[in-house]
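[Help] Beginner question about ligand-bound structures

Sorry if this is basic. My supervisor gave me a protein sequence and a SMILES string for zinc ion and asked me to "get the holo structure". I don't really know what that means in practice or what format the answer should be in. Inputs are pasted below exactly as I got them.
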Amino acid sequence: MKKKTLIINGMILTMDELQENLIHCGFIVIEDGNIQKVGKLSEVDSSFVNSIPDIIDASGKLVMPGLINTHTHAAMTLFRGLADDIPLMTWLQNHIFPAESKAVNPEMVYWCSKLAAAEMILSGTTTVADGYFHEGSAAEAFAEAGLRSVAAQGVIDFPAPGVPDPAYNIDKTEDFIESWQGKNDLISPAVFCHSPYTCSSETLQKAKKLANRMNTLFFIHLAETKGEVEQTKAKHNTTPVQYLNSLGILDENTVCVHCVWLDEEDIKIIAQTGCGVSTCPDSNMKLASGVAPLDQMLKGNITIGLGTDGCASNNTLDIFAAMDLCAKVHKVKKLDPTVVSAGEVLKMATIDGARVLGMKKITGSLTPGKRADIIMLDLQQPHMQPMYNADNLVYAARGSDISTAIIDGNLVMKDRKILTIDIEEIKERVRSLSRDLTETI
Ligand SMILES: [Zn+2]
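Answer (accepted):
No worries, everyone starts somewhere. Holo just means with the ligand present. The predicted complex, written as structure tokens, is below.
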């Protein structure tokens, strides 16, 4: 017999372009992990409600699609607050790379990714795209937490954690993809090349070929700083975007992260090639990298998802905080309160994030046929009253307002208690790893 769950009495935000977006008192039927029906409660009778024994009462809550974080490095929770207020290149070379060379091993990646998974679930994220080293350990942590994930193994032309000889970075990534492809419905393995300035053209092309052959996504940090553009122009006589395009890297299975420093031609190329963009405004602001031309990218019909980036450059994984900041930073840069609206940002964090990750048929909206990735937000908090429309989700809501998370039809968090993993044990393990790290640096 098929397992059915009925969610009733909540306000429903569908994020589905073909349905009514905001239903004031609605219902959702979940059958075997799929969203089967969404509608107004007034349109069904009590016999329908009584026919489903498993009922979740969402009175006083907003029921919406789980949020999507299109870019992070989950295991970097260990480095949260380790080196703040430093320029990107100094930060990478003097702080992050040395700390990574000492601290990153499979155990660290497992526990710190698990901490990240807990933080994300508690703040409403139900799908994450992660990129790091020892990514198998991250994938294991996400699978145990019940978090939908694109787990991408890091590729870089330096000795890296788990890949001491960069000559084997592609082989290592291939092994990782082979071991996770088809293993767990929640986990999609992928390739993450760190950047055009840390990977050679040969490595970039080999990595993209591997992604094509294995039918996975390909992620890359791109055009993050002005310095990167200058360096690429000096070395390759073109912009980072045009350089990657000339290598055949850009297509609809490539996700370009950051895209802060783009010229008009770059924007055209991104639009024409169909690659997705993950914008990470918190990270770009904290590292003073710049403000991405998001309004121009939106005008150019580029699909944009929202990312937090890793905890070393943010320092939280709360997509509600990222939405608020994203909707405001572009307004102040352009001195125009109409650019990058709350509605557009909400799409980036849900349906467009799903598009960027090639998951629009699976998640990102409350649409019949999609998997049930659903969160419930407490509307009774003073800062959520009154509720005229969905804009308060961007400008007033916080991750801590989320009470319930359902991922792939499974109840993963109830009344702010995560049901899949032991948060106290995780915190203890990460604190112990942080003590080890401070002793060695
Ligand atoms: Zn990043």
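A couple of things worth pointing out: The CA atoms of residues 412 and 419 lie 5 Å apart. The chain has two domains: 4-65+373-418, 67-356. Feel free to follow up in the thread.
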